[in-house]
Amino acid sequence: MNYDPTFIAELTVLRRDLHRAPELSSEENETAKRMAAWLAECEADEVITGLGGTGVAGIFDSGQPGPAILFRCELDALPIQETGIPDWRSRIAGKGHMCGHDGHMAILCGLARRLQALRPKRGRVILLFQPAEETGAGARGVIDDVRFKSIKPDFAFGLHNLPGMKQGQAAIREGSFCFASEGMTIHLAGWTSHAAHPEDGRSPVSAMMTLTEKLPLLPRDLGMEPGEAIVTVSHARLGEPAFGISPGDGWVMATLRARTNQLQAQLMQAARDLANKAADQSGLQLEISTAERFAACSNDAEPTDIVRKACEEAGIACAEAEGPFRWSEDFGLFGRAAPSAFFVLGAGENHSQLHNPDYDFPDEIIPQALAIFETIATEQCG
Prior knowledge:
Layout: H1 5-20, H2 29-41, E1 46-51, E2 55-61, E3 68-74, H3 101-117, E4 124-130, H4 138-144, E5 155-163, E6 170-172, E7 175-178, E8 180-189, E9 193-194, H5 205-214, H6 218-221, E10 229-238, E11 245-246, E12 249-258, H7 261-281, E13 285-294, E14 297-299, H8 301-314, E15 318-320, E16 340-348, H9 366-381
Parallel strand pairs: 3-4, 3-5, 5-16, 6-15
Antiparallel strand pairs: 1-2, 2-4, 6-16, 7-14, 8-12, 8-13, 9-11, 10-12
């Protein structure tokens, strides 16, 4: 599908403007306003704001019976200081679009422009600009919003750019696509003592050593197949930095990931059991908290086939994705609301990796991504 270069240039300018003004998860107020204004300018039949927090949905309604097709992108940036030096680098210290959500928004804005010119003939096309993807809270907030029931889709589609893969090539697979994940913080509480008399206190050192050693081994100990799960100890803290104190508190943080939600539940319970045992053996109090929970992303057969056919029709190579990917995506929750499919589009084999401080979305893949989405919309809604 060939697009007017002036049109693609407009989307590139938009993408770079968004890159200059990143906003973190659940704080995407100005970005959301800009997306709502764009949808209104594109004459969406309805624009919903404040969806699940700062989310925005634009609905292009034919007024005729037919399927409701949802395309989703993300609003949020990351708390990362950008080290790259493009002319459009972030103007906000400590914040940057280091995952390419600025590019994903530009793609959906391009689809809005196309829908303005070529209105659906049947059903509805829903463009969702979702907040807080990076924390795992955004999709849940949108789906739990009572207004989502009125736009509940028949199919949901999403994409992510992927460094390390040939630029402009798509990849998809039926079934497991992205791991479930959740962060766990384990607080071990004893009591301090003078460093000269550690026996008079209760230190969490031994329990922390046990946890940092055994948490990463949990997938093996549970009999999970290689590649099905991974536990990464991401942070540990013991007391305060002082030579005269035997510490009384310790914290271990770990990220637990698994291929399916069922395996993830087993992994989380095993981590809790391990923490309880370690705390009991050292006579410590235990507090466990979790954060950034992502459901596994699993692609349904019918929408996966729709993506493959759209790629073929648009002349875009589509490979079978190796996987599932160990990173997480809260798009997985949309699979509970409708049959869904998530795919990746190559950012370039030598492109800087996602979440790296010098990452920048490759504008060259905007036309390919737009072509895939537009072809799906056209095939489903006329």
